Amino acid sequence: MTAVRKALVGVVRYARELTGETEYDRYCERRRRHHPQAPVPTRREYQRMRTAQREGESPGRCC
Asked: In whole angstroms, what is the distance from residue 19 CA to residue 15 CA?
């Protein structure tokens, strides 16, 4: 692998971590490991589930 390609792979990997894209991948791995019989939600279903969870959490105080 050339140095340019290695650098590009590193940048892409960093960008995926920064945007949270790898969060779904880690969730799928963990879900398959701990609940092999359960279906794995699609990326869209996962995003909806996470959004509902985050919006349901209320902060301890307003400010």
From this structure: 6
pTM metric for this prediction: 0.65
* H-only helix segments in the chain: 3-19, 21-34, 43-56
Two tokens, residue 3:
């140095």
Task: From residue 10, give the alpha-carbon distance in Å to each of 1, 4, 14, 58.
Answer: 12, 10, 6, 36
- Tell me: pLDDT of 63 over 70: no
Please give the single-letter amino acid code of residue 48.
R
Residue of 39, 14, 16 lying closest to 28 (CA atoms): 39
Residues 6+ apart with CB under 8 A from 50: 23
